[in-house]
Amino acid sequence: MRVQLLHIADCPSWQLADERLRRALRTVGAEVEVERVLIRTPEQAAARGFHGSPSIVVDGVDLFPHAGAPVGLSCRLYPTPGGSAGSPTVGQLVEVLSGR
Q: What is the pTM of this model?
């Protein structure tokens, strides 16, 4: 399994997403490295289908697809039980990773 965390440099949420992703991976027993990918240009965003920072991608698939979301260098919000947040919760990540 290839796990990537795509982000922009000034995203305030990518480090929290990274921490939660690593916790979720440990919870599901997946011993894999998380590759951090810095998206710097609109061209890189377009080439990767990047829908905002942070984005969590496993084997080339965005774990939280959002139909109609624009591609570009922007921050991303996730619907969580506590409201919109800059990162999915550990529980949300465990749920989606368990289904893979």
A: 0.93
